[in-house]
Amino acid sequence: MKSVRKHIIAWVAPLFGGAILLFSCSSESAVGNYNPETMLTQQSDTLTMLVSQNGVKSYRFYAPLMERYELAAEPYMEFRRGVDIITYDSLGNVESTLKADYGISYEKRELWEARGNVVAEGEGGRTLYTQQLFWDQKTDRVYSNVDCMVREGEDYFVGEGFESDSDFKDWRFRNQTGRIHVDMSQMEGKEEDAIVVDDEDIDRQSVGAIEGE
Fold first, then answer.
1. Which domain range does residue 125 map to?
2. How far apart are the C-alpha atoms of 2 and 156, rounded to whole Å?
3. 3-state secondary structure of 88
4. Nearest to 210 by CA among 36, 77, 73, 202
5. CB neighbours (10 Å) of residue 114?
6. How far is 67 from 22, CA to CA, in rounded Å?
């Protein structure tokens, strides 16, 4: 996932013929009144990229809308309608996925932020649910400062703050607050009876909020 931002820029820029400004400079007053912090310089609807390395697909990136602000003091790309990312291993198998209602990439800091119903799935089906997630490309680390829930098989872990590598293989909570074990073999026709709460207490309402229910 390290080169996602670079490929997006390389893919989008030619579509606009190198154009930077989307506003009219027909009058001096128009030029004098523009705000570089909020000036849209590039836009793409239904952006889809499939990147391959050595003939093997590496990742797929999809965003219904991409908007870029190159003239801001902190240039950024914004994805107001959400993002959907899939990465693949060397054999072309799905390695990890990430979906969110909103995304933003700060180009100078090489920092991504995903917000709203964030769901990230890694190796072995390990799945993270949260409302905000950051990805630092410089360190290749993923982290969150809000409540998160991680599902591993039949176990659900809840905690405050989350840290992991970008593939979600080595993860931890800064403060784990609960754990739920769900016996899937007994789930048919049952709901609460199939849920066994471990020794640690857990706020059921907070779990629902994390999942966006």
1. 4-210
2. 28
3. strand
4. 202
5. 28
6. 11
Sign for the pseudo-dihedral over CA of 176, 115, 113, 55: positive
CB 112 within 8 A of CB 142: no
| pLDDT 10s digits, 70-113 | 999 999 999 999 999 998 888 888 888 999 999 999 999 999 99
Q: What is the DSSP letter of 167?
A: T
Dihedral in degrees, nearest 10, Cα atoms 96, 1, 137, 165: 30
Radius of gyration of the chain (CA): 20
CATH number at residue 103: 2.60.450.10
Domain count for the chain, please give it: 1
CA distance 185 to 204: 22
